[in-house]
Write a structure and sequence with these properties.
The chain is built from 14 helices and two strands. It is mainly α and 308 residues long.
Length: 308
């Protein structure tokens, strides 16, 4: 039975409505704030409230806009290149986030795998235990690690009592403490998508491999792990992206030598009150995160189209 013109129009309108909702959400909560921050990054510092002089004055009309555009300067972005503090902060943030993501994957994969292979009656309880830390404030959980990692903290007291060490370990105010804080805080973000991917795995594939004489470790690397890669990628993105711009953990657990762009951005914005430079820092950080993700998604889309 062929569709009428009205039914085709209704189908197109329905598809357009479904597609337009996420695009409208993206426009409202991503693109609009991005352009506002980008506009501030092109401004000049001023002793005023807010502490910057806008380059584009919309009240001056089209002539004022053309004049401002002809005199447009990217001096704040040039400053980010000239001052090594900023590029070292970017590099340090990406390094710390990448190492933390890798450690989180090493810790989270066995947890997700164990949850996926546990009896079905246990899985809701195990999921609740993974989500349980979210019932407590993020700030309180980070502060708790100060009490655990400091020289007279619980960890050092335990190690001294057991006899593993003779002197307290200096963990707090180091990059090691930052790694511990990030891995602990973002572990559920990796476990949950990875568990969802592993839980859907067809166990008959593993049974067939076992019947064909495949050892368990080889079956894991040839069947289980490749099929769980979408969950691995999703979980790593959910950990890496917020970890790059993390501020609370390096500020509370890291030392004065801990360089992360979130901490540098906060100092520029609140201590130096240099809104244009801090906005430029935020724009560059966003581009560093968004561009690789967009390129990766395009590559995945092309791969899926070729496979189809």
């Amino acid at each position: 039975m062929e569709e009428t013109g009205l039914e085709k129009l209704e189908g197109k309108l329905g598809k357009w409505l479904v597609i337009s909702i996420p695009y409208a959400w993206l426009m409202l909560f991503f693109l609009v704030p991005f352009f506002i921050v980008f506009k501030i990054s092109l401004s000049h510092v001023a002793v005023s409230i807010p502490p910057y002089a806008p380059v584009f004055d919309w009240s001056a009309g089209w002539d004022g806009f053309k004049e401002a555009f002809s005199e447009l300067s990217f001096e704040n972005y040039v400053w980010l290149i000239e001052d090594d503090l900023y590029w070292r902060s970017y590099l340090s943030s990406v390094t710390i986030a990448a190492v933390s993501t890798f450690i989180t994957l090493l810790v989270g994969y066995p947890i997700a795998y164990g949850m996926a292979r546990s009896p079905k009656s246990w899985r809701p309880t195990l999921l609740m235990l993974v989500i349980l830390p979210f019932w407590t404030s993020f700030l309180i959980r980070v502060y708790a690690w100060i009490g655990i990692l400091k020289n007279e903290g619980l960890l050092n007291q335990l190690l001294l009592w057991v006899g593993v060490i003779d002197q307290p370990l200096s963990i707090l105010n180091t990059n090691t403490a930052v790694y511990i804080g990030i891995v602990y805080s973002y572990l559920p973000f990796l476990v949950l998508p990875l568990y969802a991917s592993l839980e859907k795995l067809d166990e008959s594939l593993l049974e067939a491999a076992q019947d064909l004489g495949c050892p368990p470790w080889k079956a894991f690397w040839t069947i289980t792990f490749p099929l769980s890669i979408p969950g691995v990628i999703a979980g790593c993105f959910l950990v890496f992206i917020p970890a790059v711009g993390e501020f609370v953990i390096p500020d509370l657990l890291g030392g004065s030598q801990t360089l992360m762009i979130g901490k540098t951005l906060w100092l520029e914005f609140f201590n130096n009150r240099d809104w244009p430079v801090s906005s430029a820092v935020a724009v560059v950080l966003l581009l560093i995160l968004v561009i690789p993700i967009v390129l990766f998604q395009r590559q995945q889309q092309k791969a899926s189209e070729k496979a189809a």
